């Protein structure tokens, strides 16, 4: 690879003006399941009535339905039932929905939880990029705690929006207090976390959870739902998505969002990104490293549709298959695709050197 191209890609990944959106693909190298695997694992263990509801879901666009789609469906159904006078007369009743959501979340936790284990790949990633003079913003859609465990092992400070220790409470002002601290990572878990619980008063707290036993009968907060359906239930979600939008509209000279392990299949996240690029005086550019899907033709059409809405400031390097965007010349993009940076460990090797 030409040195100028390597330098440009390295700058994308290490600039103090870059922030990151991390999806499930980035936890795969640490032994966590991808969404398809997670869906299968959960459905294998839940009640057949829950499986039946999942079986009735339409495919989501050009992809198969996932367990997150089922959660979204049940949350929407729950919201609708809250507006009628006789909810128990409907096909699904509120008690069944609530118990089903609890069962699904319990199985998600069981598939993901560990004893606060860090990842060598994640440690090398943060060692390379978390040395800025200003805070590094990491947005993640993952429920696991790999990032937190890795930062703990590195003794690198981070803020996740919770104040306190045992049963810490959510206080978004912490993100602002971290503005001048360095090195510091600001971690925004947009879809919740396996170590977040909702207390009896409805407040979201971060618990000291290290194993499945710690989570027994806990009301875990994971919610991959659209904002309009959950904002009245979880102020945390609304606040974090707002922070995501505000960060993407930053006035940084080379404001950039780098995505890794994210498939661009979540409409509410996509719209937040597109709106931020199209906002008045925005200078945001998106650099996305994405794994190729089974239907590459449909995937390319979906990403090209996003690019058309983004004033040519959306760039996606997909597997070793194709490139959408204008940040690199065609030949340079082909060479970059061959490195398969959509694999998180490959990206880290590229920017931080191969691990042991």
3D structure, described in words:
The chain is an alpha/beta fold and 356 residues long. The protein folds into 2 domains: 269 residues, no CATH class; 77 residues, no CATH class. 41% of the residues lie in helices and 15% in strands. The chain contains 14 helices and 13 strands. Strands 3-6-2-1-10-11-12-13 form an 8-stranded mixed sheet, sandwiched between helices. Helix 4 runs antiparallel to helix 5. The longest helix is centred in the N-terminal third of the chain and has 19 residues. The mean pLDDT is 88.
Distance between the termini: 23 Å
What is the count of distinct domains? 2
Instruction: Compute the average pLDDT.
Output: 88
Uncertain parts: none
Helix/strand order: HEHHHHHEHEEEHEEEEHHEHEHEEHH
Strand order of the largest sheet: 3-6-2-1-10-11-12-13
Number of strands: 13
Please outline the major beta sheet: 8 strands, mixed
